[in-house]
Amino acid sequence: RTPQPSAGRQQGDAVSLNGRRQQARWLLENGELWLPLEVLEGQLGVNRSSDPGQDIRLEWFGQKLQVPVAQQRSLDDEVAVPVNALLEPLGVTSSVRGGLLELQLQARPLQAIRSRDQGISGRRVVLDLAGPAMLRSGDNQLQLSLQASASQLSELEGLGLSPRRQGDWLSLKADGARLLTLGGPWRLVLDLPPGPEGRSAQRSAETL
């Protein structure tokens, strides 16, 4: 059951990212949006660094935010932080419908795909973007809200990412991948672990 809002305060347990709905706690208080760190890191791909008991440093597509301990709060036993200063400068808009928080970010074209074999470390794939992109991760899948051409889908298929397109969402196989978002220029970096095919290819190369 969704808690009833009080004056200047709304909260709920569902979040929609460019139309893709998921269960997640959120709080809107006096115009400031609070989201759990688990949602920011595990879903949106926000990069986090911190020291125990110290400030939390967040970065998403080049936008940086430092959250002092005093500005961290609990949402159903999850650590939550204020995110307006992180999301709004990148064009993310928010609206509330009952217990549902809707976050929107314009889907832009994928500009280029770059890939580099890193030997036993695996492969690095860099997606050059026209702007920051809404993304979701989980279940060994990475979902990106962007526009990709047929030739780009073929290129991603050749890299073993098994792309699937659904409207403005692109789903990639990202089993064990490490994700990094960058700004100036806009980029999404995927560090893929070596798979059986990669290890076999490397052994074949070593015997030549």
Please give the structural blueprint.
Blueprint: E1 9-17, E2 20-29, E3 32-36, H1 37-42, E4 47-50, E5 56-60, E6 63-67, E7 73-75, E8 78-82, H2 84-87, E9 93-97, E10 100-104, E11 108-117, E12 123-129, E13 135-138, E14 141-147, H3 150-158, E15 164-166, E16 169-173, E17 178-182, E18 187-192, H4 196-207
Parallel strand pairs: 1-10, 11-14
Antiparallel strand pairs: 1-2, 2-3, 3-8, 4-5, 5-6, 7-8, 9-10, 11-12, 12-18, 13-14, 14-16, 15-16, 17-18
Low-confidence stretches: 1-6, 197-208
C-alpha termini separation? 64 Å
The topology string of helices and strands comes to EEEHEEEEEHEEEEEEHEEEEH
Q: What would you report as the Rg, rounded to the nearest angstrom?
A: 19 Å
Number of helices: 4
Assign an overall shape: globular
Strand content: over 45%
Class derived from helix and strand content: mainly beta
> Biggest β-sheet, characterized?
8 strands, mixed
The beta-strand count equals: 18
Helical fraction equals 10-25%
Description:
With 208 residues, this protein is mostly beta strands. The chain is 15% helix and 50% strand. The longest helix has 12 residues. The protein is globular and about 50 Å long. The N terminus and C terminus are likely disordered.
What's the gist of this structure?
The chain is mainly β and 208 residues long. The protein has helices at residues 37-42, 84-87, 150-158, 196-207, and strands spanning 9-17, 20-29, 32-36, 47-50, 56-60, 63-67, 73-75, 78-82, 93-97, 100-104, 108-117, 123-129, 135-138, 141-147, 164-166, 169-173, 178-182, 187-192.
